From TrEMBL:
<feature type="binding site">
    <location>
        <position position="170"/>
    </location>
    <ligand>
        <name>Ca(2+) 2</name>
    </ligand>
</feature>
<keyword id="KW-0964">Secreted</keyword>
<feature type="binding site" description="axial binding residue">
    <location>
        <position position="169"/>
    </location>
    <ligand>
        <name>heme b</name>
    </ligand>
</feature>
<feature type="disulfide bond">
    <location>
        <begin position="11"/>
        <end position="91"/>
    </location>
</feature>
<feature type="domain" description="Plant heme peroxidase family profile">
    <location>
        <begin position="1"/>
        <end position="296"/>
    </location>
</feature>
<keyword id="KW-0732">Signal</keyword>
<feature type="active site" description="Proton acceptor">
    <location>
        <position position="42"/>
    </location>
</feature>
<feature type="disulfide bond">
    <location>
        <begin position="44"/>
        <end position="49"/>
    </location>
</feature>
<dbReference type="InterPro" id="IPR002016">
    <property type="entry name" value="Haem_peroxidase"/>
</dbReference>
<dbReference type="GO" id="GO:0046872">
    <property type="term" value="F:metal ion binding"/>
</dbReference>
<keyword id="KW-0349">Heme</keyword>
<feature type="binding site">
    <location>
        <position position="224"/>
    </location>
    <ligand>
        <name>Ca(2+) 2</name>
    </ligand>
</feature>
<comment type="similarity">
    <text>Belongs to the peroxidase family. Classical plant (class III) peroxidase subfamily.</text>
</comment>
<feature type="disulfide bond">
    <location>
        <begin position="176"/>
        <end position="201"/>
    </location>
</feature>
<feature type="disulfide bond">
    <location>
        <begin position="97"/>
        <end position="292"/>
    </location>
</feature>
<keyword id="KW-0560">Oxidoreductase</keyword>
<feature type="binding site">
    <location>
        <position position="48"/>
    </location>
    <ligand>
        <name>Ca(2+) 1</name>
    </ligand>
</feature>
Length: 296
C-alpha cells in the first residue's frame, strides 16, 4: 500500500526538487499546469497509476501516446523528463515515474491557486502498456452522464468524485474537434456562448480541428470553482461537462460546488487521493524506471 512518508529517508529532497521544476515550467507557460494535471488522470485511468502513459512506443508494443484521447493532445512529457532528471540527480534509481506524476499533479494545482494536500507514494512503474487500453478506458467527451458514472464506479469512484474531479476543467484548453458537436448540435448550451465558440471552431469536421478554446471561459488559468458556475449557466465547453448539470443526478453536487469553493476543494482532494490509489504496482511488481519513456 501507498504511504505518505514513503521517500522520507530514501529521497528527502523529492518534494522541493519536483516543485521547483514544476514552478519553472508553469512560469514559462501557464497552461503546462493543466497539461501536467491531466497526465496523472490519463495515467491512473489506464491500468492504474503506473506511469504507463509516459512510455514511448517500442518494437514490442504500441503505447498510449497515439491513442485517440492522447494523440495531438496529451502534453508535458518533456517537463516530466526534466523532473525525472532533477530527481535522479538527488536520489538516483529511487523514485518511480508514477509517483512523479502524482507529486507533479498536486503541485500544479497548488501553483495555479488551488488547494494542496499530502499525497501517498510508493507506486512502481509498468514495463509495458497498450494503445487499445487507453482507447477503451479514458472517457470520451461525447459521454453521457450514465457512461461517466459507470466508468468511474468501475474504478471505485463515486458520482461525487466524478463531479469533483471534473472540476479540473477549471484550467486548460480543449481542441475544436472535442467540442464541435456540443456547440453546434446540443441544446443544453447558452446560445450566445455557443455562438462565441462557433466563431473559433468551424462546423465542418476537418477544418480548424486543433483550434483551442478555454475549458473555463472565465478564469482559464486559475484553479477555482468557476467551472461549476459555468455549468449552472449552461456554459460548459464539452458535452461531458454539461451533462453534469442537465437535470440529472449530479445537478445538486454541481450547484453546491458553484456556491461553495471550499467544499469543491475538499472533495477534489478526497477524489484525487482515491484516483491516485487505483491499482498501483507495489512490492516487487513493476520497476523504478531510469527514464520515464522506457522500461529499464
Ligand atoms: C469526466 C471525464 C473527462 C473527460 C470526458 C475529459 C475530456 C477532456 C478533453 C476532451 C479535453 C481536451 C483535450 C483536447 O482537446 O486536446 C480535456 C482537457 C483537460 N482535462 Fe479532462 N476529461 C475528463 C476528466 C478529467 C479529469 C478527472 C481531470 C483531472 C483530474 C482532467 C483534466 C483535464 C485538464 C487539466 C485539461 C486541459 C489540458 C491542457 O490544457 O493541456 N479531465 N479533458
Ligand atoms: Ca496507467
Ligand atoms: Ca478557473
Amino acid at each position: 500500500t501507498l504511504t505518505k512518508d514513503y521517500y522520507y529517508n530514501s529521497c528527502p529532497k523529492l518534494y522541493e526538487t519536483v516543485k521547483c521544476t514544476v514552478e519553472t515550467a508553469i512560469a514559462k507557460e501557464t497552461r503546462m499546469g493543466a497539461s501536467l494535471l491531466r497526465l496523472f488522470f490519463h495515467d491512473c485511468f489506464v491500468n492504474g497509476c503506473d506511469g504507463s502513459v509516459l512510455l514511448d512506443d517500442t518494437s514490442s508494443f504500441t503505447g498510449e501516446k497515439t491513442a485517440i484521447p492522447n494523440k495531438n493532445s496529451a502534453r508535458g512529457f518533456e517537463v516530466i523528463d526534466q523532473i525525472k532528471s532533477a530527481v535522479e540527480e538527488v536520489c538516483p534509481g529511487v523514485v518511480s515515474c508514477a509517483d512523479i506524476l502524482a507529486v507533479t499533479a498536486r503541485d500544479s494545482v497548488e501553483i495555479l491557486g488551488g488547494p494542496t494536500w499530502d499525497i501517498k507514494l510508493g507506486r512502481r512503474d509498468a514495463r509495458t502498456t497498450s494503445k487499445s487500453a487507453a482507447n477503451k478506458d479514458i472517457p470520451a467527451p461525447s459521454s453521457t452522464l450514465n457512461q461517466l458514472i459507470k466508468r468511474y464506479n468501475a474504478l471505485g469512484l463515486s458520482t461525487k468524485d466524478l463531479v469533483a474531479l471534473s472540476g479540473a476543467h477549471t484550467i486548460g484548453q480543449a481542441r475544436c474537434t472535442n467540442f464541435r458537436a456540443h456547440i453546434y448540435n446540443d441544446t443544453d448550451i447558452d446560445t450566445s456562448f455557443a455562438r462565441t465558440r462557433q466563431s473559433g471552431c468551424p462546423k465542418t469536421s476537418g477544418s480548424g480541428d486543433n483550434n483551442l478554446a478555454p475549458l473555463d471561459l472565465a478564469t482559464p488559468t486559475s484553479f477555482d470553482n468557476h467551472y461549476f458556475k459555468n455549468l449552472v449557466d449552461s456554459k460548459g465547453l464539452l458535452h461531458s461537462d454539461q451533462v453534469l448539470f442537465n437535470g440529472g443526478s449530479a445537478d445538486s453536487i454541481v450547484h453546491e460546488y458553484s456556491t461553495n469553493p471550499s467544499s469543491f476543494f475538499s472533495d477534489f482532494i478526497t477524489a484525487m487521493i482515491k484516483m491516485g490509489d487505483i491499482s498501483p504496482l507495489t512490492g516487487s511488481n513493476g520497476e523504478i524506471r531510469k527514464n520515464c519513456r522506457r522500461a529499464n
